[in-house]
Design a protein that fits this description.
By secondary structure, this protein is mainly alpha-helical. The chain is about 75% helix and about 0% strand. The radius of gyration is 20 Å and the shape is globular.
Length: about 240
């Protein structure tokens, strides 16, 4: 991950989660510079931003998030935990047999199954990206390539950690899926979206009177996104789909 991408990925994540376009301030750029100098991995910084916004959204607030500084504490807390795990990895490897593989204790699936899932998802994204770029690059193909690069970083990190945390990996994957979902919506033609909504509305009609408005809208949105993912050949990243 090069110097330029580190800054742009963090900027993109912050703007996407904030929901309104807001240029980063010189102080925000200085903060990203400090994270880069601290060698905070990109996937750790992104996870911290996602977690900070998840926390903010869980409690209704009148004020909006105006600065990346709001995420600083969570990003650096995530980095401290990641660093502690890395230090622990080295200690455990030095004490144990060099030929002994890291344990899978506490994981919902075996380490091999999780890594293979990440590899499949990354390969599928790169293939979809290559196919899409045959007719011209756009926001979706760019996002697919960016997400594939971050997945490779996550894959390497997960495979090298003695006691990997599946919950933290899932948080990172959720953030990447948000990136892809936003990009899918940005490139889908309006006519296609309306046609899909109409079709799905017909399918849900028998159940609509039994559903609260918010539940109905969420169900419709989920089904629409599922249909769009299938149409654009975008794989699911969540560990739930292993």
């Amino acid at each position: 991950m090069n110097y330029f991408n580190y800054f742009t990925e963090i900027e993109d994540a912050f703007i996407r989660r904030r929901g309104k376009h807001l240029l980063l301030s010189p102080m925000d750029w200085a903060l990203i510079e400090s994270w880069k100098e601290m060698k905070i991995p990109l996937h750790v910084a992104l996870r911290g931003i996602e977690k900070a916004f998840d926390s903010w959204e869980s409690k209704p607030r009148k004020r909006t998030v105006k600065s990346l500084l709001y995420c600083q504490e969570e990003v650096e807390a995530q980095y401290a935990e990641w660093l502690e795990a890395k230090i622990g990895t080295g200690a455990e490897q030095n004490e144990g047999s060099p030929d002994q593989p890291p344990v899978d204790e506490g994981l919902p699936f075996s380490r091999v199954a999780i890594i293979e899932h990440l590899e499949r998802a990354r390969s599928a994204l790169l293939e979809a990206c290559e196919q899409r770029r045959k007719t011209g690059a756009d926001d979706l193909s760019d996002t697919q390539a960016r997400v594939a690069a971050i997945l490779l970083e996550l894959e390497k990190d997960f495979s090298e950690t003695a006691s990997p945390n599946a919950e933290k990996l899932e948080e990172s994957l959720t953030g990447l899926e948000r990136m892809l979902s936003a990009s899918i919506h940005s490139v889908a033609p309006t006519e296609q979206l309306e046609a899909m909504k109409t079709e799905l509305g017909v399918q849900l009609r028998p159940y609509r009177n039994q559903m609260e408005t918010a539940v109905y809208q969420q169900t419709l949105d989920n089904l629409l996104l599922k249909r769009l993912r299938e149409h654009f050949a975008v794989p699911r990243l969540s560990l739930f789909y292993i």
